[in-house]
Amino acid sequence: MTSRRITTFLVAPLFACLGTALLLAGPQQDGAPRPSAPTTTGESGSNGGAASSGANAGATGSGAAGVTAAGATVSGATGSNATGTTPFPAAGTASAASGAAPSVAATAATAGAAAGPLASAATPVVINSPTTDAYVSGATMLRASIDATVTPKSVAFFVDGKQFCNLTEAPFECEWDAGSTISAHLIRLVVTPADGDRIVKTMRTKGLGYADRVNVEAIQVTVTVTDSNGRFIGGIGRPAFKVYEDGKQEPITYFASQDVPLELIVAVDISGSMTASMPKLKKAVKEFLGAVPAKDQVTLLGFNDSVFALTRKTTDPAERVKSVDRLAPWGATALYDVIMRGVDMLGRQIGRKALVVFSDGEDQGSHVALEDVERKLQASDVTLYMIAQGRGISQDYLKKTMQRLTATTGGRTFTTDNVDQLQGAFTDLLDELSNQYLLGYQPSNAVRDDTWREIRVEVDGYPNVRARQGYRAAPIK
């Protein structure tokens, strides 16, 4: 590979344009395959040619991938090496059934108006994710869209001055681990067109103040407070909250009541029994996803015998809504598998994490048992919500199972007699997600012995408080 750097300067007088010069910087690159591995090369160093580091499980969190008819990434719910096909419409790039998914995931939109290489008003290059002033931690998608007027030779993302990934074709996205704490980061996108000058875009994410940092071993508790009529109450100050672990009051080290980061996964049952209800279901899900604030990251999963990621950690409402059109019903219901997969995808990052599962029936094809799901939820700080209809509300044992799973996490179960009532359930859920508090504390019992620790939250003057009932003190890996 050869590289060269040509630098000229742009000179502009105050009252008249006397001349222009263009800035061309960055090494020329050979035709290295896309994507390259994450690197730690400084921006002034080499941009290209790094070999791929291999597997990144991406949205589905599993290396075992099947292939959809149009290429959506498919994950076996337990990480087995099974393959399969689905009749979904076009959804992006398929992963090979080799036990490793690509580090660059599917589905990136092109955006921006036609413009010259250095246009600023109608820019041909946009950083879609993360968004400016977003709170990020854990697995975070770096995503850019490039207008059709630009033919990119390479697209590189830099994080805090170091190159993270280098791409040569769409979709222009890669997954980056932002760490366990919410800190400010500088994201820089460098696009080198096949002809013309390179285009550079930058944005900053937002960090929390030093006093509000949460240790990775701290316990997070999402809290919902309602009045006697069930209305959600916001604006309560930190001094009113008290948290107890196994009956002992613990000092609250972190408290947030506004602009609390939320990562949301919505999992929709697309088994064969949903065929008749699918049009109305799609409409209700679209309205719900479109109403989730743009600052919150949303992943949409479809599930039947397997788990399908239709969009990953997007903050673009239009992209969320568009992804719903790819839902198509067939197969059985692997309810427990999708809960396990959703918890894994939400991971360890700081902030609120909610998993919303819609299903009309019992588990029919999961590779894990109910007890496995319970232990998984107990060891996480994910809040689980379940929306049931059909057999999910007509069979008492199914209702009790859903309530058993959601109650320990501080979530709840919604029941609807038919799909027409879904909008009311989604509206109620959105209201709840918009009026929550996030507490953090460092447990005085620091022993990680895999035992159950009971949590109780009290709020002065408000008897109706809902929060996770406890956690399993699993060893930190």
Structural key phrases:
28% strand; 3 domains; Immunoglobulin-like; 15% helix; single chain; 23 strands; eight-stranded mixed beta sheet; Rossmann fold; alpha+beta; 477 residues; four-stranded antiparallel beta sheet
Task: Give a description of the structure.
The protein has 477 residues and is an alpha+beta fold. It has three domains: 35-43 and 55-60 and 101-207, Sandwich (Immunoglobulin-like); 62-98, no CATH class; 209-477, 3-Layer(aba) Sandwich (Rossmann fold). It is built from seven helices and 23 strands. It has helices at residues 278-291, 317-324, 335-346, 370-378, 391-394, 396-407, 422-433, and strands at 65-67, 73-75, 125-129, 139-146, 152-159, 162-167, 172-177, 186-193, 199-204, 219-226, 241-245, 248-250, 252-256, 262-269, 297-303, 307-314, 352-359, 383-388, 413-415, 436-441, 452-459, 464-466, 470-472. An eight-stranded mixed sheet has the order 1-2-16-15-14-17-18-19. The chain has a four-stranded antiparallel sheet with strand order 6-5-8-9, with no helix packed on it. A four-stranded antiparallel sheet has the order 13-20-10-22, with no helix packed on it. Helix 1 (278-291) packs antiparallel against helix 2 (317-324), helix 1 packs parallel to helix 7 and helix 3 (335-346) packs parallel to helix 4 (370-378). It is globular, with a radius of gyration of 24 Å. The chain starts with 64 loop residues before the first strand and ends in a 5-residue tail after the last strand. The model is unreliable at 1-121 and 209-216 (pLDDT under 50).
